[in-house]
Amino acid sequence: MNTTASNAAASVRRLVRQRLESLQRAGVEQLPRRAPLALDVVTEADSSSVPPTSVPLAATTTESPPERPLPQDEAMPRGATPRSKADRETALAVIRCEVENCTRCPELAATRTQTVFGVGNPQAKVCFLGEAPGGDEDAQGEPFVGKAGQLLNKIIEACGWQREELYILNVIKCRPPGNRRPEDVEVSNCRGYFERQLEIVRPQYIVCLGATAAHALLDTTQAIGKLRGEFHSYGKAKAVVTYHPAYLLRNPAAKREVWEDMKMLMREMGQEV
Ligand code: SF4
Q1: pTM of this prediction?
Q2: 169 CB near ligand 1 (under 6 Å)
Q3: Is the CB of 96 under 6 A from ligand 1?
Q4: Do 142 and 172 reside in the same domain of the chain?
Q5: Rounded CA gap, 246 and 91, in Å?
Q6: Cα–chain-centroid distance for residue 106?
Q7: Domain range holding 13?
Q8: Which residues pair with 240 in a beta bridge?
Q9: Which of 144, 147, 253, 271 gets the most CB atoms within 10 Å of its CB?
Q10: Could you tell me which residue, 29 or 151, shows the higher pLDDT?
Q11: What is the pLDDT of residues 231-273, one digit of tens each?
Q12: What is the pLDDT of residues 179-196, one digit of tens each?
């Protein structure tokens, strides 16, 4: 191994050790198969047959974009899929730890109180995907706990569900200052995190709350009015687009349309409306 490759391997080993120690401190005792990319990197870096330029060192730094998952069937071969609740919790804890240390968006990392990862049942049938944490969420570290969150809870209750049985997350994990809309680059920086969360939870249904969530999940720029009223595909999941609860606080008349969207979902789920 030449000097450059040797230095690269040593650097990767140091980063991996730091990451593992950090996970251990966070209470993580096992790693899911897909998460320890860094361990694979060490193997590659140690191999003299792999030129240094092919060693994806960036994958272990905070500067690289988060790993984008493969389409579900490819990304999760049957034997490797975290299926039990405990395995999924562990897999999510690994990502949470990455998020807590993430500084890809310098402004958001500098102004956040804490990151806001996601909450709920790791085996949820239904996920709600919002835009970004607001002030209350930034303070409490949980998505949808402010006024918009209270309205979301009412929507959930009206559907006959309990918040605890669902999984709730945002597209980006840090509060944009002044609750501004996330910039495209911030969504792009954070995309890998929510995609990996969904990959682990594997919901059958995803409710996109607002345009940012819909555009990020469905990779479209269509107006929310055009996206509502039908099901969209995200892997094997069916996605519904509706208005964000924060929008409903400003425009209560739109609650009727949200209720139509939720009824469409409940009917699809075979649930009595
Ligand atoms: S918004 Fe996401 S990508 Fe940006 S700093 Fe926060 S966790 Fe990292």
Answers
A1: 0.75
A2: no
A3: no
A4: yes
A5: 30
A6: 19
A7: 1-61
A8: 207
A9: 144
A10: 151
A11: 999 999 999 999 999 999 999 999 999 999 999 999 999 998 8
A12: 999 999 999 999 999 999
